[in-house]
Amino acid sequence: MALTKNKSRLNLNIDSDLKENVGKILSEMGLDYTTAINIYFRKILTEQKIPFEISIRKNLTVDEIFGKNWRDGLDEIEDDWE
């Protein structure tokens, strides 16, 4: 494919197994790598963000979930159980 004035080449290093497995899925969808990457880049451009969430999952403490005062009143509840 000859590059035209509005095209540029992008060289990537990617895991071979990942490339092969994604290639099979893209083929079933009737897409090639170039089209898939162009779709991805256009989505980033229109949404001005990566089109999926990227995060480090944090294990929350009980205090973070329920607030620092979640223990208030537990003594009374325990007394009622006795």
UniProtKB/TrEMBL annotation:
Q: Which Gene3D superfamilies match?
A: Met repressor-like
Q: Which Pfam families match?
A: RelB
Q: Which GO terms describe its biological process?
A: DNA-templated transcription; regulation of DNA-templated transcription
Keywords, sorted A to Z: Toxin-antitoxin system
Checking InterPro entries in the record gives: Arc_rbn_hlx_hlx, RelB/DinJ
Give the UniProt family note: Belongs to the RelB/DinJ antitoxin family.
Recorded hits in NCBIfam families, A to Z, give: RelB_DinJ
Q: Which PANTHER family does the protein's record reference?
A: ANTITOXIN DINJ-RELATED
The protein in question is named Addiction module antitoxin, RelB/DinJ family
Q: Which organism is it from?
A: Streptococcus milleri
